[in-house]
Design a protein that fits this description.
Blueprint: H1 5-18, H2 31-42, E1 46-50, H3 57-66, E2 71-74, H4 89-92, E3 99-102, E4 108-112, H5 119-123, E5 125-126, H6 128-134, E6 142-143, H7 146-149, E7 154-158, H8 165-177, E8 179-181, E9 188-190, E10 194-199, H9 212-215, E11 218-222, H10 228-238, H11 249-263, H12 275-291, H13 299-313, H14 326-338
Parallel strand pairs: 1-10, 1-11, 4-7, 7-10
Antiparallel strand pairs: 2-3, 5-6, 8-9
Bound molecules: adenosine-5'-triphosphate, magnesium ion (MG) and zinc ion.
Length: 340
């Protein structure tokens, strides 16, 4: 009998820990959060990440899926059948079953939560053309949804709180039973998955919330902005670099310090800058230096890049005395960052 996805994931994590490796290499957070995430995964529970935009939630979900070993499936099977038991509508009629390998990093299905999301988007639907051809009862006329495709994969649901309650309820059933039954068809499909979902904190969220029945099936972990040193490391690891332009360490620090200075003014600013903001400042500072044919990024480049980036992103809160004076607030942020 093949191992379940949870067993595979647990094994992968424990193996790395035994070798003194960090299973979440590439995702930066404090030790408490890291341990909490690993504990949830080792226990085989679904994970709900709550945090502001641009704090590495998608990055983390991808790192988790890449922990999984490669899996054997069958070519052209949309249900990820086990090769030793090809039983889905795609595989049933076929004489030969060609084995294919899917690497861990591809064992990942992403759903973008939105208010328009219908249960059929998750659970699949009848393909009218195929139904005309094969007859309405033929399971091959059924187009699998994201849920069936997530069998033996990590199911990443971004912004779960934006999914309408009715669609959320469909998910409860699948998480509970691990199978889907399609009304009108005589087949059920197995869904062995682990869900990693994200939810924006209330100030970012729309009207919807994650229903109580659903959130009860998740372990919630708060993700916050990385600390200063980690954010510098993130820029080095994930920021784009330009040939022929170098970025001295103190200029990298300056870029991060600007975002940090803005985050320290939550009364003035409605949407605090994310790590993406720091990445943009870092990348555009290099462009500015390159355009001036300068080999090294200087403070003036970082500050000019920051002005541009913040102009487009920084929303001054209605209560702030800088309301209507975004440019002044940006100058204040840049000044504060120099003190760091
Ligand atoms: N804690 C972190 N560890 C590693 N990379 C991070 C972290 N926070 C942000 N990043 C980097 O910032 C960028 C945005 O991260 P990511 O897309 O994972 O954020 P997110 O939380 O999914 O954002 P959103 O809520 O907007 O979907 C990526 O380049 C990512 O590498
Ligand atoms: Mg994301
Ligand atoms: Zn199959």
């Amino acid at each position: 009998m093949a191992k379940s996805l949870r067993e595979e994931l647990r094994q992968a994590i424990l193996d790395r820990v035994a070798k003194k490796e960090n299973p979440l290499e590439g995702f930066y957070c404090d030790e408490q959060t890291r341990e909490a995430i690993l504990a949830v995964l080792v226990a085989g529970r679904h994970l709900l990440l709550e945090g502001p935009p641009g704090t590495g939630k998608t990055t983390l979900a991808r790192i988790i899926s890449a922990l999984l070993p490669a899996m054997d499936t069958i070519a052209d099977c949309r249900y990820n059948c086990y090769p030793e038991d090809p039983s889905c509508p795609d595989c049933r009629g076929k004489k030969s079953h060609k084995k294919v390998k899917t690497p861990g990093s591809k064992r990942f299905v992403r759903i973008q939560g939105s208010p328009e999301m219908m249960p059929e988007d998750l659970m699949g639907d009848l393909d009218p053309v195929m139904a005309m051809r094969l007859g309405i009862q033929d399971p091959r006329a059924f187009t699998p949804g994201k849920i069936q495709k997530a069998h033996r994969k990590i199911l990443f649901i971004d912004e779960l709180n934006r999914v309408p309650q009715r669609t959320q309820n469909t998910l409860v059933q699948v998480l509970e039973e691990g199978i889907t039954t399609i009304a009108g068809f005589d087949f059920t499909s197995q869904v062995d998955t682990l869900v990693v979902a994200t939810e924006n904190p209330e100030e970012f969220a729309g009207v919807e919330r994650v229903s109580e029945t659903l959130s009860d099936r998740f372990e919630e972990i708060r993700i916050s902005y990385p600390d200063f040193e980690d954010e510098v490391t993130i820029l080095k690891q994930y920021g784009k670099t330009l040939d022929a332009v170098s970025v001295p360490e103190d200029m990298l620090h300056r870029a991060v310090a600007i975002s940090n200075a803005a985050r320290a003014m939550p009364e003035e600013i409605e949407r605090l800058p994310s790590v993406r903001t720091s990445l943009s400042i870092y990348e555009q500072a290099q462009s500015l230096a390159r355009l001036k044919n300068v080999k090294q990024v200087k403070a003036e480049h970082v500050e000019k890049a920051a002005r541009r980036v913040l102009q487009g992103r920084l929303v001054v809160s209605a209560e702030s005395r800088y309301y209507d004076k975004q440019d002044l607030l940006i100058e204040k942020v840049i000044e504060q960052a120099k003190k760091k």
